[in-house]
Design goal:
Blueprint lengths: L2 H13 L5 H13 L17 E2 L5 E5 L7 H4 L7 H12 L20 E5 L12 H17 L5 E5 L1 H13 L14 E4 L2 E6 L4 H6 L4 H15 L8
Parallel strand pairs: 2-3, 2-4, 4-6
Antiparallel strand pairs: 1-3, 5-6
Helix pairs in contact: 1-5, 4-8
Length: 233
């Protein structure tokens, strides 16, 4: 099977996952009850598959899908303000063919990057438990193994950074003193972790994360992979 076919098969497994009862109950309740603005839409209401380029050298790792964003549209970081901010930045950096992500059939394509999440179901109050994080860990680690050209893991927020460090430890990579901060970095095995504040409304509306700040991190990620085309065995 090709790399794209293997990722597609993995996504089919992800979408069928029901391992965390609290998350299953919440995501499905949200999909039934809906937000008034979306009452005529059919919510996705399932775990979130990864999305992007099978030949990606950069992985963007988020926290979890938003209740009325990804949990509604079926694509990570799609249908909410966080996604609007993120995809506009990805387009400016040359990673996306368009600046907006509206729904799964909108024609958006990513180049050299793949987007995933530490937790695949929308959690109550946007706060997964440590047990839910650990239960979900195998999904993004399997993506890591399938994305054989991967070199940089861009962690969107402290939760994603912590999940990445924990996951890479299970893969036998020693993280050393890897502390999260915006613009922070750490070499962990064959990967470079980069930190970026999460593009939540709380961060973008207050100016804690600005377009210039996320642009700088994306440019740095691109520079780290430039000229690194070696495929892992």
């Amino acid at each position: 099977m090709s790399r794209a076919e293997l990722l597609h098969a993995l996504n089919a497994e992800v979408v069928g996952c029901r391992r965390c009862p609290r998350l299953v109950e919440w995501r499905e309740a949200v999909a039934r009850e809906k937000r008034a603005a979306y009452r005529d839409e059919t919510y996705w209401g399932r775990p979130m598959p990864g999305f992007g380029d099978p030949a990606a050298r950069i992985l963007l790792l988020g926290l979890a899908p938003a209740a009325h964003g990804g949990n509604r549209t079926g694509r990570i970081f799609t249908g909410d303000r966080s996604g609007d901010f993120l995809f506009a930045a990805l387009h400016r950096a040359g990673f996306a063919n368009r600046p907006t992500s509206v729904h799964r059939a909108d024609g958006l394509k990513l180049r050299d990057c793949y987007i995933s999440a530490a937790v695949r179901c929308a959690p109550p109050a946007n706060k997964p438990t440590p047990a839910e994080r650990d239960t979900c860990q195998e999904w993004w680690l399997t993506e890591l193994r399938l994305l054989r050209r991967l070199r940089v893991i861009l962690c969107l927020g402290a939760f994603a950074w912590d999940a990445a460090v924990r996951g890479l430890k299970t893969e036998g990579h020693t993280p050393g003193r890897a502390a999260f901060g915006h613009g922070s970095s750490a070499v962990v095995g064959p990967y470079t972790l980069l930190g970026c504040y999460h593009p939540s409304q709380q961060n973008t509306f207050t100016g804690r994360l600005t377009p210039v700040m996320i642009d700088d991190v994306l440019v740095r990620a691109k520079s780290l992979v430039s000229g690194q085309a070696v495929v892992r065995a």
